[in-house]
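fwd from M.: "can u put these together and see what the complex looks like"

so here's what she sent:
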Amino acid sequence: AQSVTQLGSHVSVSEGALVLLRCNYSSSVPPYLFWYVQYPNQGLQLLLKYTSAATLVKGINGFEAEFKKSETSFHLTKPSAHMSDAAEYFCAVTRLSGGYNKLIFGAGTRLAVHP
Amino acid sequence: DTEVTQTPKHLVMGMTNKKSLKCEQHMGHRAMYWYKQKAKKPPELMFVYSYEKLSINESVPSRFSPECPNSSLLNLHLHALQPEDSALYLCASSQEAWGTPYGYTFGSGTRLTVV
């Protein structure tokens, strides 16, 4: 069954530094993969998605992720962190169950950005 | 319109009360979802509606009763809740409920507190 594992529940970076949030998936078939961001007391916003069209996916707010089948990874990166990037980030995968699609989330990574 | 709108944003209810959460989308999406998110945890799927019919119930207690009156509207009726049901309730929609590569669009949630 498809699932995702996010390595590191908390990541802290300096403003202007590289952001790297790790996500590994387990799937017997090429999955659909997503990154969502959640700001405090907000819903989830889609950052980007992998749907097998291209392995390097660009999203909103300067984020991108690379699908690496050999490593079963879909890590999220941003070259230069901004204070406004501080939030909770969820990697997610769709899982077919009983003919219906379920969006299954990883445990989340809280990103802190300090001056 | 590319939004999922949830009302109310905050709700405090007693354990003997009956209340309802409302979710609305006008994107023509044919699948709608309820998720429950406890503090510092990822969202967990509760219900899936596809073409206005309940497709998946993730063994949710009967004190939560979903309803989909039409393709744009999704309700969650609450009755005799427990304090441990306090959480952020998220509504989401997607174009279809199976095999969708497009991800879900989430609302901003209803913060429920049961006293």
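replying to her w this: Chain A touches chain B at residues 32, 34, 36, 41-46, 49, 51-52, 90, 92, 94, 96-108 (CB under 8 Å).
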